[in-house]
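Tutorial sheet, problem 5. The two components below are modelled jointly, 228 residues in total.
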Amino acid sequence: AQTVTQSQPEMSVQEAETVTLSCTYDTSESDYYLFWYKQPPSRQMILVIRQEAYKQQNATENRFSVNFQKAAKSFSLKISDSQLGDAAMYFCAYRRSSTGNQFYFGTGTSLTVIP
Amino acid sequence: EPEVTQTPSHQVTQMGQEVILRCVPISNHLYFYWYRQILGQKVEFLVSFYNNEISEKSEIFDDQFSVERPDGSNFTLKIRSTKLEDSAMYFCASSARAGNTIYFGEGSWLTVV
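Model answer (C-alpha cells):
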C-alpha cells in the first residue's frame, strides 16, 4: 500500500528566509506523480507544485522547488524568500501513474511565517 | 482561471438526515472526485467518477454514500443517513485526464449534530 509520511507536524520560518518541508513515501511502483498542496486558513486545497517520477530534474515554480530523491523515496519542498501569505498547512501527496486516480496524502505540516 | 465550485460552503444537519453536497467541476474535465478531511486529520479519498460511473472508491465510501452526475455540469455526493462521524470538510475535485493534476474546490463543511 502507498503511504505518505510528513514527519514535521509544525515548522516556522522568518519572513524572507528559506524553509524546507520533508516528505517521504512508500511505493513499489516505478512511475508515479508527487504533489505538494497548500491549505490556507480558508481550507481550500491549492496545488503548489508537481513532480513526475520519471523526470530527473527537480520541479520549480517561482519561489517553490522540490528536492526529489527517487532512490530514497524523498520529496521535500523548499520555499525561498518566505512570505506571510505562505503560512498554511502543506500536504504532500502521491499518485500512481499506471491505474487509478486516487491520491494519497500525508498528514500535513503547518507552516508559520514570522514577520 | 477555471475553478471547481462547491455548494453549500457549510451545512449543519441532524443525525440520520440525508445530505446532498453539490459540485461544479471545471468544464472540460472528465474525471471527478470526492475527498474528505475530518478536522485535524489528513485528506482522504472517497471516490472517483468517470464516464458516468464510479471508477474507484475507498473503504470509507460505503452504502450510505452515492455519487451522481445528474446533468452536464453538476456532480453530487449524497449521504443517505448521516452519522456524527460524517462531520468533515468534503472536497470535490476534477482532472482533465486520468493521472493529471486534480484541482480542488473550496470544500463543503458538514457538521452532523
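Marking note: Chain B touches chain A through 27 residues (CB under 8 Å). Full credit if you identified this.
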